[in-house]
Amino acid sequence: MRFGELGDGLRPRADERLREAQSIAAFGMNLVRAMLRPGIIGHEIATEVLYTMTKAGAEGASAPVHVNSDMRKFCDNVSG
């Protein structure tokens, strides 16, 4: 069996998992939009979004969830 043939068998499952992950991420972004209002802090949004996405089936975030609410703080979390 060639490696390509083995990969062909895995591709449909991987594609399905990617679609599922994208759907959960879109659900999280829609929640962010719904939560935006004056007075809410980024930590509240990040906590609720991560919790809700985990309940929807996410196994965790691929990167920390940061919500920037001030242009002066836009790059605070960037290292390099």
Keywords:
80 residues, mainly alpha, 2 helices
Short characterization:
With 80 residues, the protein is mainly α.
Description:
With 80 residues, this protein is mainly α. It has one domain (3-73). The chain is 59% helix and 0% strand. The chain is built from two helices and no strands. α1 crosses α2 (42-55). The longest helix has 33 residues, at 3-35. The radius of gyration is 17 Å and the shape is elongated. The mean pLDDT is 79.
Number of helical regions:
2
| Strand-residue proportion | under 5%
- Approximate helicity band: 55-70%
Indicate the radius of gyration in whole angstroms.
17 Å
Structural class: mainly alpha
What is the fold's blueprint, element by element?
Elements: H1 3-35, H2 42-55
Helix pairs in contact: 1-2
